[in-house]
Each structure stands twice: as C-alpha cells, then as structure tokens.
C-alpha cells in the first residue's frame, strides 16, 4: 500500500472539508477553490513570462539562434500581462471571487512558513541545498571568507572582493 500517497491525498482533501463547512454551499466552495486556482495559474504564467523577458534581455544571441521563438516576442508578453491584469480586476468585482483572490497571499505565506519550518526541522543530510545556502556554509567553514573580505588574486596581483 502506498502509504505516502495516501497521506498526501488525505492532506489535500482535509482543507476541502474545512472549505465546505466555512461556505454556505458546495457551489460557494467550488467558487473559492476555482478562483484561488485561477489566480495561482496567473501567477505561475506571469513568472514564466517574466523569465522569458529576462532571458531575451540577458542572452539576445541565444534568442536569435533559437529555432522556437515566441510569436511577437516581448510585445505579446505585455499583451498577456494586460489580459491577466484585466482578469484579476474582473475576478475582484464579484464578492465571491474576491474572497478566493484575497486568499492567495495567505496561501503564499503558509507555503513560505511550511517550507522554512521544514528546512529547519530536517536533518542536515536531507536539507535542500540552494546556491546561497552552499555559499553561506562554505564561508562559515573557511576562515577569512565571506562578504567584505578581500582576497589576493594570484594571477593579477590585485585584490578582489569575495
């Protein structure tokens, strides 16, 4: 029996029960859930579009060499951003969907706290290692390293910041 999958399914289903008790009807619960999912969808695609714009700005030569280019490139990104903005405004006009829209920052806060508390509770061998965390660990292990410490560059005879 896949115990981890069963626990995950239960954890995903429990909030729905609370949502059903908090709302007046099943349709109201569906409206809250679908609005929250829509706003999260808009957030994810906005991050993808921002990443695309940054990619085009930082690496124009790679974009020119690419076989698969987005039709109308950067202008289309801005058109999609406007569409997303109008969609969020329309969702905010109805009090029922506004509740789901306002819930999204709470969702991000809960995910942030859960992520950081999980990092703190996990043993060091299981912790997720990000580039920033690796740099901090290395600077703690090596004396004389870290922000603001100047080191001699053996190739040029000049010092550089670490």
Your description of this structure?
This protein is mainly alpha-helical and 162 residues long. It has one domain (3-118). 73% of the residues lie in helices and 4% in strands. It is built from six helices and two strands; from the N terminus they run ααααααββ. It has helices spanning 3-22, 26-58, 60-65, 73-93, 95-121, 131-141, and strands at residues 150-152, 159-161. It has a two-stranded antiparallel ribbon. The longest helix has 33 residues, at 26-58. The radius of gyration is 23 Å and the shape is flat. The mean pLDDT is 79.
Percentage of helical residues? over 70%
Uncertain stretches? none
Work out the count of structural domains. Answer: 1
> Over the alpha carbons, how many angstroms does the gyration radius reach?
23 Å
> Which sheet architecture does the biggest sheet show?
2 strands, antiparallel
Dominant shape: flat
Strand order in the sheet with the most strands = 1-2
Question: Could you tell me the strand content as a percent range?
Answer: under 5%
Category from helices, strands and their pairing: mainly alpha
What is this structure, in a nutshell?
The protein has helices at 3-22, 26-58, 60-65, 73-93, 95-121, 131-141; strands at 150-152, 159-161. With 162 residues, it is mostly helical.
